Amino acid sequence: MKADPKSVLTGVYYIDGDVAAGWGALAAGCKFIAGYPITPSTEAAEAFARVAPKAGAIFIQMEDELASIAAVLGAAWGGAKAMTITSGPGYSLMMETIGYGAMLETPFVLLNVQRGGPSTGVPTKTGQADMMQSRWGSHGDYEIIAISPDSPQEMFDYTIKAFNLAEKYRCPVMIMADECVGHMTEKVVIPAADEIEIEPRNFYKGSAEEYLPFKPGSDLIPQIAKAGDGLNLFISGLAHNEKGYPVKKDEPRGIYLKRLIDKIQKNKDKIIELKEEETENCEVVVVSYGISSRVAIKGIDMAREKGIKVGNLRLVTVWPFPDEKIRELANRVKAFVVPEINYGQIVFEIERCCDGKANVVLVPHGGAGVHNPQDICDAIELGAQKEKKSEGIIEFKTRLEKLVFEGNWSAKE
Amino acid sequence: METLTTRNTYHPMENLLRMDRLPHIWCPGCGIGIAVTTLAAALDKAQVDLNNVCIVSGIGCTGRVAGYVKLDSFHTTHGRAIPFATGIKLANPNLKVIVFSGDGDLLAIGGNHFIHAARRNIDMVVICVNNFIYAMTGGQVAPTTPLTAYATTSPYGCVEPPFNIPYIADSAGAVYVARWTALHVRRLATSIVEALHKTGFSLIEVISPCAQYYSRINRLGDGIDMMRFYHTNAEIRHGENTKNLDIPFQSNIICGKFVDRERPSYTERYNKWRTQIKGEDNEG
Fold first, then answer.
1. Residue to test with chain A: of B86, B274, B281, B282, most A Cβ within 10 A
2. Architecture of domain B12-283
3. Reported pTM
4. Which residue positions in chain A have pLDDT lower than 50?
5. ipTM rounded to 2 decimals
């Protein structure tokens, strides 16, 4: 299906990533955004609120993030494509209901413009420390999809993709952006509506008597319905059977979980998007996502100038994690270098997939800024010097850490 | 249009209940079942298209209502029935949305959503079953537990003054506010019908016996004793100022319809505003 021309602001713009995401949501057919203002995500909500009415969409500013995410799920079951927008503390508040969304197999999108944490942290500066929370933040076992854009153009493009994935796989899809990408202003090209592919909601069309809201098709995904279809839906966060009814004592209780996980894990090949460059014959590969992948390009160039063969692997999709790709690379590279704006999150996934076959160098960053490309270059050099034999995660100190912890830092620098 | 009377069944309640989910989990002497039966009677009386009615509950004893009612029904997370219902209503304004939940769910963990939905005047009927206690978890103190009443987490008597629910709803902007006990089934049904025909945020409080916890812990007898108490102590005062509706421990319970007024609902305001924007756009 093509996008609705009323919802597509075709043209060439110079806008920031947040605005691009708001406009991307509209182009994707989003009819409902509920949100609560929080830096640095607010501009996305503002952008949507401004353009929504003309396209027949609603923006409502709720009383808090708990209400925002609940309203988004309600709107999704009312039949609308829906999204919420948040950051840091707001994201934490939404966690319970994200799990509810996963449990109900509700298609919805959540834009998290990550900021420095924990707690109030550094509200106006960047961070990438919610990556594990996006995967494991709600209680219980579930699967989500997370995408990490690295430019305003991608904020537009991947917001549309996020909606399409949410519809296809009936699960929460997180756009794990960060303050840098959200506030970075660049050229964004919005194509004509007929060039934008939209995944329509797969509504059940059969008889009311036969409808089982959680009976999957061959792709493991059930057809969805909405309130008002005359199907007498019962939708509950309790462990439920195919009819949506709570499982009874004599039914196997945990078994529904297997499909919630399988529908993502077994469709991984179709979901995961990676960007690879010169990974064929490299000795070190840099794995990064979001704004760090923009900074990594410079670090990689610097290392290549020194004659090191460096590959670049960018995780556009962070969850589900591309285990197979990392395993395959681990067989032939000496080391992985992982710059991320945290003290180690995705790096542990990489270490797990390496299975002792390659070294892993974390280039940490405490947030409120991005890496110094020189650090990434140094880490690449360190990785290249090591034997292929794995030492696990190799400790790497950034320039800033050396300055501060060796007592040479002064406010001037 | 599908209504209760057009649904072809043998038992009068079969029209509205998911018979394949019975027996329900409520204890003997509980008033929630009465409230559900009354809702069924009201839906019949109101002649609304059942395919356009959806019911949203939170968590707790009353939260289980959604699971037994044969309508589009949603059993949401604790406290979030109202914002979830807000999302449904805004996504499809043609639906009649009923929120059916308990006092703890709607007024404690969900208290903020309650006042904001009333302020926005979201078109929904909120039926709040108030049993003065957290019953599903075994009898803990609630924001509605009367001062001095016992609960497992107020073993020396409740030290906090309770909420006066109709007063909160009234102050926050509800267009329809009523209170009945589980004994007043016909009057409660009439209130639900009236609320279903209102546009805007309606609140109906249903004082309900909790025989297993509230009543047992406070030595008030069983369900029938509680009903007898309502019979003696409920006082109907329509139009009473909602300020005067506090419920002290084992004293008079003032019932009636207290608020019935008109205020533009969220959807009405939004649509008007949207038409204006579109008009301006056309001029440009």
1. B86
2. 3-Layer(aba) Sandwich (3.40)
3. 0.96
4. none
5. 0.96
